[in-house]
Specification:
Blueprint: H1 8-13, H2 19-29, E1 34-40, E2 43-48, H3 49-65, E3 73-77, H4 82-93, E4 97-101, H5 107-117, E5 121-124, H6 127-136, E6 145-148, E7 162-164, H7 165-177, H8 182-189, E8 195-200, E9 210-214, H9 215-228, E10 236-239, H10 246-258, E11 262-265, H11 272-279, E12 283-286, H12 288-303, H13 307-325, H14 331-345, E13 352-355, H15 362-371, E14 375-381, E15 386-390, E16 403-404, E17 409-413, E18 421-426, E19 433-434, H16 438-443, E20 445-446, E21 449-458, E22 464-469, E23 474-475, E24 481-482, H17 484-491, E25 497-503, E26 510-516, H18 518-527, H19 535-539, H20 542-556, E27 565-570, H21 590-596, H22 598-604, E28 610-618, E29 624-632, E30 634-635, H23 641-649
Parallel strand pairs: 1-11, 3-4, 3-5, 4-8, 5-6, 6-7, 10-11, 12-13, 13-14, 26-27
Antiparallel strand pairs: 1-2, 8-9, 9-19, 14-15, 15-16, 17-18, 18-21, 20-21, 21-22, 23-24, 25-26, 27-30, 28-29
Helix pairs in contact: 2-3, 2-10, 3-4, 3-7, 9-10, 13-14, 13-15
């Protein structure tokens, strides 16, 4: 099946090679069409293309008055907001580079990124982000101006670097009024081969690097993606994932400007699902962690319903997933269950949905397939400008991440007898390299191919299967090869499992450290009148261990005997990106975890029944909690030498 043709409007717009040029085209041809919406105080505020251009042009001219020059860096930090996109495009109009920073980045992370990129101007959303920046003091000496977009709580500051976005736009308005065609000249001066975007890599093994994208590469790959999954001016999208992430850049910036897909910004993270239902998007992208959370929330809510409704849910899910396994849909299950679920979630108008950024378990994928969500997996890297494989409509295989997009070449380096090896990728729109890091830039490519570091293979139909990071594929001391990520994803389909870390490399058997979903287990415990105070307290309860044991045994039943989890414990805290245990895109940082929890891991394999913990947890608000506990080590498979000898004799 060939890739479809992108919409004609997209083909015409593709000749424009910078974001400011696309914005000017949209404002001239479609001035009253809605470009963006933002929810504030419960009301959706719409911005048409003419108003977006007005804001961007004034910001760009204002940035020039602040001394921004070509080649400088403008950093943006905060929640997903229209002002973020305006600031990014305004920076490009000045031939400067934009750098997105995750809103929850800690001071140390900001210090590192700013020390490396040396931004001259920062667009910060609110008081929280301004506090973070001012606390860094001379550590971010390159910053001359901090533009804030939300003035609540800002009156107490007197730092001369602070400037409101209103004041910035007023500076720009005055500058534009004094020179004829000033904005048009700025736009025409932008160049496709200028580096426009610095995008942070995930940083699973070390500090994140900054991938450099030219305007030509960024928009070229956006157009390629629109060929693989066409979008247009009639499409509605809700921006959920951070704008600093590569894929949110593709959708909220690239597709917004090139395809004129309307982008909607939710009021708050807590209102996301409610806002989704109000908009009724035609396309969504969630990370696997978000899809897993949605599925878990559905199952948690079903727990609160009547016995009759729970029975209908179980019947509908079983029937729907059985049909999905055959590539079909159950009309009866859809009528009685799934149609109502789609409506409650805001998924009724979806024509396409995607997941990427990490692997998703087949069980979770099949659940949404059964629900009638047109879900596709995609795969890519920041260095390759995001996704470069995706499922074709009608050819969705939930065990693969789809086909290479048009113009993308894949290769498998050093495949084993089963075809498994390192995935290499090549296409015309790759990054230019890592910013101020020539050594890693050169090392990341081999004969023009980007070395992804991921292990996978191509099926007979040339769909790509991704197994795990090459460095994370492991072998036990008994020679059993396994993929930690594969088993972890199976565990996380459970309503109760938030995160899991599979152990076993160079060990005699597999074990797991598990973090449960606290809101769901807390609710479960309250219904059973089990007393507890904190996550750590709940993690020590025998009843909770029994619940998680059942989930691990369910997963073990689907695994080869030698790859089953022999022991597990419930960690005393949830894994957190702020503690360095996860990346900002919620990927497990295995090396860091292996070092931080080395004592616990050693005790698991020592044959002990429990691990004594005496530590202090530091919270983002500055508070601390001391945890003193004995974590039980649950044994599911007898791994004592005598037991193994008896098993071998049988």
């Amino acid at each position: 099946m060939a890739w479809p043709e992108p919409p004609r409007d997209v083909r015409d717009a593709a000749a424009l090679d910078t974001l400011p040029k696309l914005l000017r085209r949209n404002a001239e041809r479609h001035p009253r069409a809605i470009a963006q919406r933002e929810k504030e105080f419960g009301i959706w505020i719409a911005y048409d293309w003419a108003s977006v251009e007005r804001h961007v042009s004034r910001m760009a001219a204002g940035l020039v008055t602040l001394g921004l020059e070509p080649g400088d860096v403008v950093a943006l930090i905060g929640d997903n907001r229209p002002e973020w996109v305006w600031g990014e495009v305004a920076a490009h109009a000045c031939r400067a580079m934009s750098l997105g920073v995750y809103r929850d980045a800690l001071e140390d992370e900001v210090r590192y990124l700013f020390g490396h990129a040396e931004p001259k101007i920062v667009v910060a959303e609110d008081e929280e982000q301004v506090d973070k920046l001012l606390a860094l003091g001379d550590a971010i000496a390159s910053v001359t101006t901090i533009v804030y977009t939300d003035d609540r709580g800002m009156r107490k500051y007197d730092d001369p670097r602070l400037l409101s976005i209103t004041a910035l736009e007023e500076k720009g308005r005055e500058r534009l009024a004094g020179t004829a065609d000033a904005w048009a000249k700025m736009v025409e001066a932008t160049h496709a081969d200028d580096v426009a975007i610095l995008c942070t890599t995930s940083g699973t093994t070390s500090r994140p690097k900054l991938a450099m994208w030219t305007s030509r590469a960024f928009l070229g790959h956006v157009a390629t993606y629109l060929t693989a999954d066409p979008r247009g001016a009639g499409d509605e999208y809700v921006a959920v994932l951070p704008l600093s992430w590569v894929m949110e850049q593709i959708y909220s910036v690239g597709w917004n400007l090139l395809a004129r897909m309307t982008v909607n910004f939710v009021e708050d993270e807590a209102t996301t699902m409610h806002d989704l239902r109000e908009i009724g998007p035609t396309f969504v992208l969630f990370s696997p962690r978000v899809w897993e959370s949605v599925a878990a929330d559905i199952r948690a809510r079903i727990m609160d319903t009547s016995r009759w409704k729970r029975a209908i849910y179980r019947w509908g899910v079983d029937r729907g997933m059985a049909a999905a396994a055959r590539g079909r849909r159950s009309a009866l299950a859809d009528a009685l269950l799934f149609r109502h679920l789609r409506d409650r979630l805001g998924f009724s108008r979806l024509t396409s949905a995607a997941t990427g950024g990490a692997a998703m378990g087949p069980d979770t994928f099949r659940f949404f397939e059964a629900m009638g969500v047109p879900l596709k997996q995609l795969y890519g890297q920041t260095e390759a400008l995001g996704a470069h494989t995706i499922h074709k409509t009608g050819e969705v295989d939930n065990e693969t991440v789809g086909y290479p997009m048009p113009g993308v070449a894949l290769a498998i380096r050093d495949p084993d007898p089963e075809g498994l090896g390192e995935i290499l990728v090549q296409h015309p729109h790759m990054m230019s390299g890592y910013y101020r890091n020539e050594d890693d830039s050169a090392a990341s490519f081999a004969d023009g191919w980007f070395q992804t570091g991921d292990a996978g293979y191509l099926t007979e139909r040339r769909q790509l299967v991704v197994i795990d990071r090459v460095k994370d594929l492991a072998t036990t001391s008994r020679g059993v090869r396994f993929s930690p990520q594969f088993i972890e994803n199976k565990l996380k389909f459970s309503t109760y499992v938030a995160e899991a870390v599979i152990l076993g490399k160079d060990r005699p058997y597999l074990a797991a450290m598990i973090c449960f979903r606290y809101p769901i287990l807390a609710k479960w415990a309250e219904e059973r009148r089990l007393s507890f105070t904190t996550y750590s307290d709940l993690a020590s309860r025998r009843e909770v261990y029994d619940v998680l044991r059942a989930e691990v045994e369910r997963v073990n039943a689907t695994l080869p005997e030698q790859q089953r989890i022999a022991k597990f414990l419930l960690l005393y805290k949830e894994l957190d990106a702020d503690d360095g245990e996860l990346t900002r895109t919620k990927k497990v940082r295995r090396g860091f975890i292996a070092e931080k929890y080395a004592d616990i891991i050693e005790t698991i394999y020592s044959g002990a029944d429990s691990v004594h913990v005496d530590t202090v947890i530091h919270f983002q608000d500055g508070s601390r909690q001391r945890v003193v506990a004995d974590l039980a080590i649950e044994t599911l498979i007898d791994v004592r030498p005598e037991a193994r000898e008896a098993e071998a004799a049988e």
